[in-house]
Amino acid sequence: MNSNRNTTVIKGNIKESKRKITTSSLIRWAGLSAMAAGIFYVVVGMFHQSNILSSITTSQWAIVHTLATAMCILFLLGITGLYARQAEKAGWLGLGGFLLYSLNWVLTGNFTFAEVSILPLLGTEAPTLAEGFLGVFTSSEGETDFGVLANLWTLTGALYILGGLLFGIATFRAGILPRWPAVLLIVGSVLGPVVAVLLPLEHQPKVAIPVGVALAWLGYALWSERREQASENVHGRASTFAIK
């Protein structure tokens, strides 16, 4: 009887350990996603060309906006992991920031996909239409009315500011992940769009750099933390089996 009971307990412990390792691994990979997305965001900010007709048919435009599309997907995965790691202590503030920030990247991802897949074709076949689409990003009016898209793009700006602000504050208050990148996320989210208005058109995308650094930093913290915990769990389990 004791032997059967011990066997059942051991099997239960093994299953529980596997679940913990799986959860830990998923969150760790989410950290890696956030880190990659943050790096992509910095690259996009540094090399993004001006939103003018002559830019959209260049190789640089295609590369940057392909990275931007991948970045949005990775951000969604990364932010989910960052929130999951601190959900209990982040509270409603963290949940609100997570939802708003995620919606921002969903909408932004659709725009970047259109910029890399549709806009270059319009630039060649229908330049007037392409200029109208570019006007969505520069708040300039063209011959074609993109009112709905312009409103959605304006919404992404509000979600970017509010979502980043709330998520950064929740991360800072939770105290689980490093606080300095949380501060950088708060400052970059709030001041970035304001500073962008004051910068020349060609330098406006560079306001993405602080936010990219902040999210890459948080992603690295999550990834390295989970790697260390996974290593400790493996060694601890090996020691337990050795004693038995």
Order of helices and strands: HHHHHHH
| Radius of gyration over all CA atoms, rounded | 22 Å
Give the helix tally. 7
* Residues in helices, as a percent range: over 70%
How many domains make up the coordinates? 1
What is the residue-mean pLDDT, rounded to a whole number?
A: 84
Separation, N- and C-terminal Cα atoms? 18 Å
For the report, how would you describe the main beta sheet? Answer: none
Uncertain parts: 1-21, 230-244
Total strand count, please?
0
Strand content: under 5%
- What spatial form do the alpha-carbon principal axes imply? elongated
What is the structural class? mainly alpha
Provide an overview of this structure.
With 244 residues, the chain is mostly helical. It has one domain (2-243). It contains seven helices and no strands. It has helices at 2-47, 59-117, 119-125, 127-138, 147-174, 179-198, 208-243. Helix 6 runs antiparallel to helix 7. The radius of gyration is 22 Å and the shape is elongated. It starts with a helix and ends with a helix. 37% of the residues are buried. The model is unreliable at 1-21 and 230-244 (pLDDT under 50).
